[in-house]
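This entry is retained here.
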Amino acid sequence: MARIIHITTPGGPEVLTYKDIDVAAPAAGEVRIRVKAIGLNRAESMWRSGEYIEEVKLPARLGYEAAGIVDAVGPGVTRYAVGDAVNTVPAFSQNQYGMYGELVLAPVSAVVPHPPSLSFEEAASIWMMFITVYGAFIEAAKLQACDVVLIPAASSSVGLAAIQLANMVGATPIALTRSSAKRQLLLDAGAAFVIATGEQDLVAEVLRITGGAGARVVFDPVGGPGFGKLVKAMATGGILLAYGALSEEPAQLSYLDLLIKLPTIVGYTIWSTSGDPLRQQAAVAFILAGLASGALKPVIDKTFTFDDMVDAHRYLEANGQFGKIVVTV
């Protein structure tokens, strides 16, 4: 028997429920993992509250990222053996699998070797953020050393990963944050410039920094009323990748700015990269190389225990973290 967390109704953190289950032996193409650490993601709180891009089939498991030890392997699985240290990457539906548990099943297509230089807590924090940014910057935007990139919500785990990866390829990351409270933290994290959007004129600052050229790449998880300002701050012919919807308000955009800036606006999710075996393999290799060189580093804000998952979700939704929230098991 092992404890898992599931939901039987959508709602706030309090709907997360612990349950003792007999975890089945892995089927063909599956591995069973004794979990040591879990990385939390905004996608999971949206799933829990019924606001995710995929319809939730209740009762539902949840959780994408886990790090642990292989406990058993299913028929046909040859890549991993009992005792191997592994991680899971977001490459499955939470209607099928969930990593919030002491012992979990995972599809082998979503399992990667544990980076030997990292702790379980660190490894549980890296894959969602770095694969998301890799797919957006390297695959979609073809980010180059000459590029300037705007990073809203820069103190999130994905925002910090975007800063690191931009620096890794030699681009110039401009971190956007609501107030100046996290300015120094973002500069220390590698941001070339920080703009406090609640205190400064976003468009004027970007144009000042870029000598009037604007930013070629925008990586936005927010949307909402500020969306149009991001387009105004872009270089002509730039690309804006929308990968989240943190604002509950409608995105506001001047139609005329589309004719002036001629932007490419792309809805982006991690699944196009993590869900394709070859692209996932390339992303993992890129990230492992970045970790080995020191260009990419885990950033953990706070750690909770498995017993405190409700509090961990409350903390996640308070939007005050700087980096990843991790739960130890």
